[in-house]
Write a structure and sequence with these properties.
Layout (H helix, E strand, L loop, with lengths): L2 H7 L24 E4 L3 E2 L5 E5 L5 E7 L9 E8 L8 E9 L16 E9 L3 E9 L4 E9 L6 E7 L14 E11 L4 E2 L3 E5 L5 E2 L12 E11 L11 H9 L2 E6 L5 E11 L2 E7 L9 E3 L7 E5 L2 E5 L18 E6 L11 E7 L5 E5 L3
Parallel strand pairs: 12-14
Antiparallel strand pairs: 1-4, 2-3, 3-6, 4-5, 5-15, 6-11, 7-10, 7-15, 8-9, 8-11, 9-13, 16-24, 17-18, 17-23, 18-22, 19-24, 20-21, 20-23
């Protein structure tokens, strides 16, 4: 074993060692089953279904209580329609890691650090799967394979990732640094002959023999206990408290009111800006990664402005977020508009806004990578 690798083994330390957020799949702010059809989308917090070359596939993703010993939850992918990839079509489960959280890896220098990825996985579809780590923004990637040996059995996998000493350094910013992708299906144009160390390549890549999870609607894929840490030896999974894990997730996505959980879900104090509009302030529990976008579906009369004994409703919140003062921190506090109120008598009134009697309406803020 090289001296560099021996030193790398000594760098594993307890306490906030895991670069992956929500690796135990305990936080699911979006809730329920997430259907990803012919596209990409976030599912359980920080985990995203991604694709290459507009690959058309259909999966349901949910939080499952099927988990190995030591864990309570897992992320479950349930195939809804068969699909065969062609060309450069790909489907992956991935997590993007904020670049300023990876600068200590010293990539792009001779002091670059080993990192090791460990996770628990289960599927009825046995065979070869590919794991790809991408140095986002630097068009560099690392590809390794792992095998699911026994059907419907939890198996722990460990992959050591060499330091990328010849690529660029990680930027000290809030954009994507590392991107970890578990391949589910890969087109023939993106297959390589075997495991590959860091190479300049901006494409999704899988190794020869990569299974097609989408060859049967009976196929399922479960994963949990995901940990990425400095060193070349995987250590025991770092279980953070739910409160801490939730706060880490809320930097990227914050669900503030959810009618699917409570029939009357409060948003906060509000005031009538005009006879048919109101405004209210949202204070985020943590500073978000960037100025977020509003994630709130159109639902007839689901958003209610209550003032005194009177209330009026609107179908959707304003799509644009504004601030009354230029010096406000837009990643910490935002002013949200509500237009099209029904009673035409809201101007100057003080009250509060809520998601009201709707099982499909919610209000969230999205600053995902």
């Amino acid at each position: 074993m090289s001296k560099a690798r021996q030193l790398a083994q000594k760098t594993n330390q307890s306490g906030r060692k895991n670069l992956i957020i929500n690796g135990a799949m305990d936080v699911h702010q979006r809730g329920g089953t997430i259907t990803v059809s012919n596209g990409t989308g976030y599912t359980l917090d920080r985990f995203k279904i991604g694709r290459g070359s507009d690959y058309n596939f259909d999966v349901d993703v949910s939080q499952s209580s099927d988990a190995p010993t030591g864990f309570v939850n897992s992320l479950k992918i349930d195939v809804q329609a068969t699909a065969t990839p062609s060309g450069s079509e790909n489907a992956v489960l991935e997590q993007h890691i904020e670049s300023q959280n990876t600068t200590h890896l010293n990539y792009g220098s001779s002091s670059g650090k080993y990192i090791v990825l460990s996770f628990w996985v289960r599927s009825n579809k046995t065979g070869t799967y590919s794991l790809q780590v991408m140095h986002d923004g630097k068009t560099r990637n690392f590809v390794n394979s792992y095998t699911i040996s026994s059907a419907d059995t939890w198996e722990k996998k460990t992959i050591v990732i060499n330091p990328d000493t010849t690529g660029g350094a990680f930027d000290d910013d809030n954009l994507a640094g590392l991107r970890v992708a578990w391949h589910l299906s890969t087109g023939p144009d993106d297959i390589i002959s075997g495991n590959r160390d860091w190479t300049t390549d901006s494409s999704f890549r899988s190794v020869t023999g990569q299974v097609n999870l989408f060859d049967s609607t009976s196929n399922e894929f479960y994963i949990t206990g995901v940990q990425l840490e400095v060193g070349s030896v995987a250590t025991e999974f770092e279980h953070r408290s739910y409160a801490e894990e939730l706060a880490l997730c809320q930097r990227y996505y914050y669900m503030t009111a959810d009618g699917r959980v409570a029939s009357e879900s409060g948003l906060g104090l509000s005031y009538g800006h005009s006879d048919t509009s109101s405004r209210f302030i949202i204070d985020f529990p943590v500073t978000m990664r960037a100025v977020p976008s509003l994630d709130s579906p159109t639902v007839t009369n689901a958003y209610r402005f209550v003032h005194g004994a009177t209330s009026s409703s609107t179908t959707q919140l304003a799509s644009s977020l504004t601030l009354p003062y230029a010096n406000w921190n837009t990643t910490h506090r935002m002013l949200v508009g509500q237009t099209g109120l029904t009673d035409n008598n809201s101007g100057g009134k003080a009250g509060y806004v809520q998601v009201y009697l709707s099982t499909t309406a919610y209000v969230a803020f999205d600053a995902e990578l």
